[in-house]
């Protein structure tokens, strides 16, 4: 059993810890041993502090021995994407711009993890400033997919998905601006949940596009996702976009099963560009739900064709604004060869930012510039309203939507060198962010080459409990989530 500790679920390990079958230090050491064994090939971590993690685990064991009240995640190692602030730890966003920066405070989600007793374990690689779909755009090198090391793990939260799939953590956190939790979850064969916008605090998350960003969990099962969401969700006065919503018992709702069984299939999500094996897996899932007695209905999201254009106007505009703070003066990289203030700005940003980040800053600055704001940014915001309206109209007929997560399985490193080809990887996920909806990617099968395929379920705003129950209905009848890569 000990050899497989690193692949057990939160639910299983929490029960074993409570029963005294396992100590938090033993669990943490098993995860450390696994990470030492495989991360030189996977390269999921930017940094990790083994001594600190073991000290946190020992503190959990001491609380348990003393009979203190234990948190729901007490002793469970959770690794974090390197855009989430942890006091005293590096906060790099996988960029040279922040290569030497150490966070002076905890993000709200980190405070909640600490209160729940979780062991905070390491900093995970990503596409620089969360801009990318492959985790190749990192100043610290690319992360590799544990199922096939020649392929990408997806992005931007590729390190979070790969670490979990490789057994280097029991759960991880990522962020999702246009699919950055769901797409890597699909590529790596794990569960990835993007909550409704405003359900989980963004305070302490390095901003990419503030109206789209959302923190969420990667887990092995839907039940684990519910347990982690229970800890993360809730109003935060430090986040002006945080929503005051009633937080149900997600785990109880998941175990009780879905109350309504109406599933929508968006016809626009099954057109050209969808890999045949991915399409077959989604059709098999539709057939499964139908056989379970679900009402299956085709729905239309007519503005889907505008999602990509709308997203890359709004996201780059907000990125341009958010990244203006990295100027070589306040914090971050500062050029040592500048002769005056203008050169300091120019050289610091030229040296600190990578190619993809520069590309998006340029695009965003252009659409916000005088004479183009109305033609691009304002119009994109208007179309965004139409996209959200499409989803809300669909939910008058159904309770959730079933789609592919990604149009293809994991591709090889360097295969999507063209930026547009890379952007198309997010075609099925970006509409969710534009509309502020919850969505989850769950394992839905494998290709003949042995690559994971993800299924995406999209729920109604702040109805995560229903969404999770719908996802678990499929998960319980299949063993895709129990399969492990051969490392």
Which key terms come to mind for this protein?
487 residues, alpha/beta, Amidase signature (AS) enzymes, 2 domains, eleven-stranded mixed sheet, 16 helices, 11 strands, 12% strand
Would you write up a description of this structure?
The chain has two domains: 2-266 and 396-482, Alpha-Beta Complex (Amidase signature (AS) enzymes), CATH 3.90.1300.10; 305-383, no CATH class. It has helices at residues 10-19, 24-42, 50-65, 108-115, 158-165, 182-188, 222-232, 250-256, 276-291, 307-322, 341-352, 355-368, 373-394, 419-423, 430-435, 464-475; strands at residues 45-47, 77-81, 119-124, 171-175, 191-194, 215-219, 262-266, 295-299, 400-404, 439-446, 452-459. The model has no long low-confidence stretch (mean pLDDT 96). By secondary structure, it is of the alpha/beta class. α7 (222-232) runs antiparallel to α16 (464-475). The longest helix has 22 residues, at 373-394. It is globular, with a radius of gyration of 21 Å. An eleven-stranded mixed beta sheet has the order 1-3-2-4-6-5-10-11-9-7-8, sandwiched between helices. β2, α4 and β3 form a beta-alpha-beta unit.
In a few lines, what is going on in this structure?
The chain is of the alpha/beta class.
Topology overview:
Layout: H1 10-19, H2 24-42, E1 45-47, H3 50-65, E2 77-81, H4 108-115, E3 119-124, H5 158-165, E4 171-175, H6 182-188, E5 191-194, E6 215-219, H7 222-232, H8 250-256, E7 262-266, H9 276-291, E8 295-299, H10 307-322, H11 341-352, H12 355-368, H13 373-394, E9 400-404, H14 419-423, H15 430-435, E10 439-446, E11 452-459, H16 464-475
Parallel strand pairs: 2-3, 2-4, 7-8, 7-9
Antiparallel strand pairs: 1-3, 4-6, 5-6, 5-10, 9-11, 10-11
């Amino acid at each position: 059993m000990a050899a497989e500790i690193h692949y057990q679920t939160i639910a299983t390990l929490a029960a074993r810890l409570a029963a005294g079958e396992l100590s938090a230090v033993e669990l943490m050491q098993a995860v450390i041993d696994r990470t030492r064994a495989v991360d030189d090939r996977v390269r999921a971590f930017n940094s990790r502090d083994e001594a600190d993690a073991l000290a946190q685990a020992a503190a959990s064991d001491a609380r348990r021995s003393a009979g203190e009240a234990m948190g729901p995640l007490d002793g469970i190692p959770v690794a974090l994407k390197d855009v989430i602030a942890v006091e005293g730890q590096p906060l790099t966003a996988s960029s040279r711009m922040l290569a030497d920066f150490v966070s002076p405070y905890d993000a709200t989600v980190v405070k909640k993890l600490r209160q729940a007793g979780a062991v905070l374990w390491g900093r995970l690689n990503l596409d620089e400033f969360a801009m990318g779909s492959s985790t190749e755009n990192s100043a610290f090198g690319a992360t590799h997919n544990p199922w096939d090391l020649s392929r990408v793990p997806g992005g931007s939260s590729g390190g979070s998905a790969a670490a979990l799939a490789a057994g280097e953590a029991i759960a991880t956190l990522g962020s999702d601006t246009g699919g950055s939790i769901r797409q890597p979850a699909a590529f790596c064969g794990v569960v990835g949940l993007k909550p409704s916008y405003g359900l989980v605090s963004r305070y302490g998350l390095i901003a990419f596009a503030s109206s789209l960003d959302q923190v969420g969990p990667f887990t092995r099962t839907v039940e684990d996702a519910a347990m982690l969401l229970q800890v993360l969700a809730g109003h935060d006065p430090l986040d002006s976009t945080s929503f005051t919503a009633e937080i149900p018992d997600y785990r109880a709702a998941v175990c009780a099963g879905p109350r309504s069984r109406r599933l929508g299939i968006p016809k626009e999500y099954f057109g050209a560009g969808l890999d045949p094996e991915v399409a077959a897996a989604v059709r098999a899932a539709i057939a499964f739900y139908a056989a379970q007695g679900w009402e299956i209905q085709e729905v239309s999201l007519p503005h889907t064709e505008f999602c990509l254009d709308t997203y890359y106007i709004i996201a780059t505009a907000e990125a341009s604004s958010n990244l203006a703070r990295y100027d070589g003066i306040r914090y971050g990289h500062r050029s040592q060869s500048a002769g005056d203030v203008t050169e300091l700005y120019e050289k610091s940003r030229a040296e600190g930012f990578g190619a993809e980040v520069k590309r998006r800053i340029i695009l965003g600055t252009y659409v916000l510039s005088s004479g183009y704001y109305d033609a691009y940014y304002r119009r994109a915001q208007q179309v965004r309203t139409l996209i959200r309206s499409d989803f809300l109209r669909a939910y008058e007929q159904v309770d959730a939507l079933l789609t592919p997560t990604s149009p293809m399985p994991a591709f090889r490193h360097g295969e999507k060198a063209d930026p547009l080809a890379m952007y198309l990887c997010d075609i099925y996920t970006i509409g969710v962010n534009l509309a502020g909806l919850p969505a989850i990617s769950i394992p839905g099968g494998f290709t003949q080459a042995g690559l994971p395929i993800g299924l995406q379920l999209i729920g109604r705003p702040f109805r995560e409990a229903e969404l999770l129950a719908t996802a678990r209905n499929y998960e319980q009848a299949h063993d895709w989530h129990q399969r492990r890569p051969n490392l």
